[in-house]
Design a protein that fits this description.
The protein is mostly helical and about 260 residues long. The protein has a domain of about 90 residues: Tetratricopeptide repeat domain (Serine Threonine Protein Phosphatase 5, Tetratricopeptide repeat). It contains twelve helices and no strands.
Length: about 260
């Protein structure tokens, strides 16, 4: 009984060690800094991110003035991106753009910096600081590297950021409508139209403005806007909502003074 009690913890320890070893990666032997960088790049391509991080961190630390350190920093940032270490990735890409602005890796780092910032952003119900930062970064990338191969993807991501920011404003406008505060609601809906006119929230913003007019007693303006929306967006959800609100207003004529 005593022997079994002694052996059981040992056996469990050995089993835990074996299981842990199954997922562990072995750092390959390297004989030069050039080989270290090549192995780090290979590990990244093979999605062995723990090995890639170890090799690339070592290379950057050992080669501060080396000819290829900019490439290593960009690859290190990518490795952090893949495992969703957003702020660490951000730091590496910012370092490359700050210290090596003429690097051949600068364009990729500029695009990836937008990804790192976007990874730290949250949905439209929350603060949009990092969404705005990601948008500004992708716009900067597109201005500075108009021929880079990731331009099309940056354009799509820029639009996704603009949609989210418009969504945030639209939600604020609708909240003020629910609170029966038409003037603050108008401010937010107008911002959607002024700042994000090409987004899918622009029609909703026009509807919001009409509802704000109705709430504020500007009946004629509201009726005209709702009729315009019903015609302009026929067959779409916003037109159906406009028709519903139009019918509601017409059922309740203004009180005689």
């Amino acid at each position: 009984m005593t022997i079994r009690r002694l052996l059981l913890p040992l056996a469990l320890g050995l089993l835990a060690g074996a299981l842990a070893g199954c997922g562990a990666s072995t750092i390959p032997a390297v004989h030069s800094e050039t080989e270290r960088l090549a192995q780090g790049r290979r590990a990244l391509q093979e999605r062995d991110y723990s090995v890639a991080l170890e090799l690339l961190k070592s290379y950057v630390a050992n080669n501060a003035g080396g000819a290829d350190v900019d490439q290593a920093i960009e690859l290190l940032g990518e490795a952090h991106l893949h495992i969703k270490e957003w702020s660490e990735a951000q730091s590496q890409f910012e370092r490359l753009l700050r210290d090596y602005p003429e690097s051949d890796s600068a364009a990729a780092a500029s695009f990836r910096l937008g990804e790192a910032l976007w990874g730290q952003s949250r949905g439209p119900a929350f603060d949009q600081e990092y969404t705005q930062k990601a948008l500004e970064q992708w716009e900067s990338y597109l201005r500075e590297y108009p021929e880079h191969w990731q331009n099309a993807e940056a354009g799509r991501r820029r639009q996704a950021a603009r949609e989210r920011l418009a969504d945030k404003l639209d939600r604020a406008g609708n909240l003020y409508l629910k609170l029966s505060r038409p003037e603050p609601a108008r401010v937010y809906f107008q911002r959607v139209l002024d700042e994000y006119p090409e987004t899918s929230f622009a029609p909703n913003a026009n509807l919001g403005l009409a509802l704000a007019d109705a709430l504020a007693g500007r009946r004629d303006e509201a009726l005209a806007a709702l009729r315009d929306l019903e015609t302009r967006f026929a067959g779409q959800a916003v037109a159906l909502r406009a028709a519903k609100e139009l019918a509601r207003l017409e059922r309740h004529p203004p009180k005689k003074k």
